[in-house]
């Protein structure tokens, strides 16, 4: 692979892009501090670090969004300085952002060819464009009617269109920023096979992700940033997982080894009382089919299953945010009559929604207002707000959750992802709930905040709350939950208790269920290459629990189940 | 030299734009005041200030309601027509006495607002479409009710339009009271907080258990009510009900006042003091140009310049 170019190799021919002493300052922050970063031809290079480590700043400097304050960038053997993103693109550096920058209302083909349409007599040659677009996209596993508007495509398919577009523009370096965060499992597989093709074509990929399993699976080399500095660079395979985490965190190795990479303690003392929440036979059109579960006080109940298995829908149904056809929800023995978010909140159910940006924070409001939002009616009398009571509650939670902000009046949009998540947790805890539903509580937040959130979940359970935990991070789910209810296609297919709560147990529960159930929902089918058996793809993914990356096509359910324990040995 | 100058300019720009967003409208008002004091004869007279204050009343009151609607991320184009509707009601029900007539007018305004609010909150119609329908329908309805201008000779209504207490016209007292009311709503009530939260992120507000639909309905009712108050006061001052031309295009002045005052059109934020200053700014601008004998076309051009300047300054916010 690229081992020759590793370890600061000065081999000019092998490196396509190299920075020396790159520095970027923002008011009060040194975002990049003398960064030396090197990319070899045709490698997949992981760029990792906590939020605020300088990853996005580095990307933005490389792609001409920011001008560096010092240092130099050598690209294809020449010193370069891109004034605008367009210049960088023209030079062959393309970025695929999380929020893909395409035009939703134009057709798929036009998006692909925008600015480079094949012409005939000065007009766009539509038949040729459509033909070519279909051919090109087939290589990326996207088989759709290319004349239809882009907005009909799933996020994954859109990302593929953006990727295809970048490659067509003769990109030499493709930067992917959290490319899998909005992808279905099978779309992730497609993405990985596309990355393999890019590698063969000697196109360099910079891969930014929080998901360690993906990094180990797809990346050749890795650069770790912390506080604006490069703290490690080298071959991915030579870097142990724990060492990587300790590099990112700046925490010492033994400590992590002792604690595991999550900060969850042992099992919680589930109290043998009546369950605090009972959901009985929940049915929602095409989403939930007879889901029943119970949560006891002091217990963390995990919801296992793949993306699209109905975990989020179950949480939403309980929280009153998803209309149900039938089903009963009982909180501490009292049945919930009216079904609305307000009624659920009054009954003591709090739900931390999955999507922090679009469903959680109110960006223009302050930390304080965001925390007080849901509890406002309780902290007011006759519709009048009591500032004193709000301040008291807000201060308690800012201290307890260690929310780092310039003050409680700072706009929440200015905080880091981890702190925004803590603000949301504070919003829900301020309601003093009896049941807390956490949907992906640590997604997209830095490792430090993740550890704090996990510790908090433990504490809350110890205080007697009933907690439901949904996480795509299998490790988090296994270590955090006392009991796991496994869902598939909107139905409960198994329950793991005691020693069964392990990665292997979860994998086999999902895989067994997969054997006799038809292919899952059709929504993502259009983006799946015909070669991948649908049931199999679903079983591997579980958000990158499969670490061995040698064969992406071999994704049968049995293989997925077999790899769970294999990974345990690897650690 | 130049290499040194450029970064300094940049830093200044980064500071000036947010500063202008906050205080630009007050600077505008101050600049116009200074200009008038220097160049306009008899500007510094009590009588002149009284006239200005009375003339700004309708736009000011409309823009208060509009600011709340815009803070939820909506807009209300029907306020001018609701004014006309209120005027028509006054004429029709004046036979029962001025108090009844005014109450009917206010109820009609609130009802129009309720229709807007129901369409937006429950039927999910876009605010601009729902209120555009009301803008056309409301005007049509008022013309059906009262086909032409009708003079009003009721002494009570006359007193409302022309009388004053402690040297300050009733109209000004009423606008001050309404400003205080809106400030109170925004600062001190959960309703006010919910308005801003819904404008900032509707989905998050729903999931947090906020009564989103009820709040939206209430905001549009309030805006309709404010429009009716403006209509009643304008009728009282004119001493005539004129459904044909009362409040035509005034919604645009109200929206301008709100935007110039620093409330973003996408919602999530409301600035009451800025809105008041915005209304005053537009009023001063018009009266300055009139006093210097410039044709009305100049007024329109000047308003355009102010709007573009306000939007330009606001645009910078989106970038950061």
From TrEMBL, chain B:
Primary subcellular site in the record, as a coarse category: membrane
Protein name: ABC transporter permease
Any matching Pfam family: BPD_transp_2
InterPro entries xrefs: ABC_transp_permease
Membrane-spanning ranges: 23-44, 56-75, 81-107, 119-146, 166-186, 217-240, 246-265, 272-290, 296-314
Membrane topology classification: Multi-pass membrane protein
Keyword terms, alphabetized: Cell membrane, Membrane, Transmembrane, Transmembrane helix
Subcellular location: Cell membrane
């Amino acid at each position: 692979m690229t081992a020759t170019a590793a370890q600061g190799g000065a081999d000019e021919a092998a490196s396509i892009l190299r920075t020396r002493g790159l520095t970027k300052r923002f008011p009060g922050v040194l975002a990049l501090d003398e960064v030396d970063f090197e990319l070899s031809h045709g490698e997949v290079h992981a760029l990792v670090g906590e939020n605020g480590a300088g990853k996005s700043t580095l990307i933005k400097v490389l792609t001409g969004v920011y001008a560096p304050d010092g240092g130099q960038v050598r690209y294809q053997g020449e010193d370069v300085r891109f004034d605008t993103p367009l210049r960088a693109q023209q030079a062959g550096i393309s970025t695929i952002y999380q929020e893909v920058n395409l035009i939703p209302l134009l057709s798929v083909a036009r998006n692909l060819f925008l600015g480079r349409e094949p012409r005939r007599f000065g007009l766009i040659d539509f038949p040729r464009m459509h033909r070519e677009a279909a051919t090109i996209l087939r290589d990326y596993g996207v088989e759709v009617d290319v004349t239809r508007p882009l907005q009909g495509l799933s996020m994954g398919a859109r990302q593929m269109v953006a990727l295809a577009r970048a490659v067509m523009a003769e990109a030499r370096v493709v930067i992917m920023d959290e490319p899998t965060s909005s992808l279905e499992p099978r779309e992730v597989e497609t993405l990985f096979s596309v990355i393999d093709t890019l590698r063969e074509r000697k196109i360099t990929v910079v891969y930014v992700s929080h998901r360690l399993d993906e990094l180990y699976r797809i990346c050749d080399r890795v650069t770790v940033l912390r506080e604006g500095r490069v703290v490690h660079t080298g071959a991915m395979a030579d870097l142990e997982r724990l060492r990587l985490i300790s590099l990112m965190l700046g925490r010492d190795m033994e400590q992590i080894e002792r604690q595991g990479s999550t900060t969850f303690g042992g099992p919680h003392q589930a109290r043998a009382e009546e369950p605090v929440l009972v959901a009985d036979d929940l049915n929602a059109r095409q989403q939930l089919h007879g889901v029943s579960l119970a949560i006891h006080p002091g217990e963390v109940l995990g919801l296992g299953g793949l993306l699209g298995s109905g975990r989020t829908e179950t949480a939403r149904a309980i929280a009153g945010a998803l209309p149900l056809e039938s089903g009963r929800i009982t909180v501490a023995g009292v049945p919930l009559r009216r079904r609305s978010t307000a009624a659920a909140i009054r009954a003591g159910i709090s739900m931390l929604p999955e999507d922090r940006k679009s469903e959680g924070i109110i960006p223009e409001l302050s930390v304080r207002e965001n925390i007080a939002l849901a509890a406002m009616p309780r902290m007011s009398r006759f519709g009048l707000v009591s500032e004193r009571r709000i301040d008291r509650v807000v201060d308690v939670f800012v201290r307890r959750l260690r929310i780092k902000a310039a003050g409680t009046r700072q706009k929440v949009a200015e905080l880091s992802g981890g702190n925004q998540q803590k603000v949301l947790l504070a919003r829900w805890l301020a309601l003093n709930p009896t049941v807390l539903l956490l949907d992906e509580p640590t997604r997209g937040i830095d490792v430090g905040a993740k550890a704090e959130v996990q510790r908090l979940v433990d504490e809350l359970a110890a205080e007697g709350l009933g907690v439901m935990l949904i996480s795509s991070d299998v490790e988090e789910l296994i270590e955090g939950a006392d009991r796991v209810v496994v869902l598939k296609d909107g139905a409960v297919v198994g329950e793991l208790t005691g020693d069964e709560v392990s990665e292997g147990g979860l994998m086999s529960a999902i895989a067994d269920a997969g054997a006799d159930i038809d292919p899952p929902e059709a929504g993502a089918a259009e983006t799946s290459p015909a070669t991948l058996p649908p049931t199999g793809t679903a079983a591997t993914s579980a958000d990158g629990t499969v670490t061995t990356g040698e064969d992406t096509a071999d994704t049968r359910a049995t293989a997925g189940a077999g790899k769970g324990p294999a990974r345990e040995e690897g650690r | 030299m130049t290499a040194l100058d450029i970064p300094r300019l940049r830093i200044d720009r980064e500071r000036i734009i947010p500063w202008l967003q906050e205080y630009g409208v007050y600077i505008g008002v101050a600049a116009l005041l200074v200009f008038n004091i220097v160049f306009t004869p008899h500007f510094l007279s009590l009588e002149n200030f009284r006239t200005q204050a009375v003339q700004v009343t309708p736009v000011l009151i409309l823009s208060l309601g509009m600011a709340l609607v815009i803070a939820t991320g909506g807009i209300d184009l029907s306020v001018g027509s609701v004014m006309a509707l209120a005027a028509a009601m006054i004429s029709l029900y004046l036979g029962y006495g001025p108090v009844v007539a005014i109450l009917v007018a206010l109820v009609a305004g609130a009802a129009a607002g309720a229709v807007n609010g129901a369409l937006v909150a429950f039927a999910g119609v876009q605010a601009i479409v729902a209120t555009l329908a009301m803008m056309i329908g409301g005007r049509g309805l008022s013309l059906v009710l009262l086909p032409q201008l009708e003079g009003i000779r009721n002494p009570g209504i006359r007193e409302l339009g022309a009388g004053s207490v402690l040297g300050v016209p009733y109209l000004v007292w009423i606008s001050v009271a309404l400003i205080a009311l809106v400030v109170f709503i925004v600062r001190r009530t959960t309703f006010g907080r919910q308005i801003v939260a819904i404008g900032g992120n509707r989905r998050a507000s729903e999931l947090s258990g906020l009564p989103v639909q009820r709040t939206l309905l209430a905001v549009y009712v309030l805006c309709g009510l404010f429009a009716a108050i403006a209509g009643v006061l304008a009728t009282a001052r004119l001493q005539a009900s004129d459904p044909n031309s009362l409040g035509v295009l005034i919604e645009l002045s109200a929206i301008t006042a709100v935007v110039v005052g620093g409330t973003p059109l996408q919602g999530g934020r409301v600035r009451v003091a800025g809105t008041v200053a915005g209304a005053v700014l537009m009023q001063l601008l018009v009266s300055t140009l009139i006093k210097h004998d410039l044709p009305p076309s100049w007024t329109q051009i000047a308003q355009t310049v102010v709007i573009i300047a306000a939007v330009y300054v606001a645009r910078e916010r989106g970038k950061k």
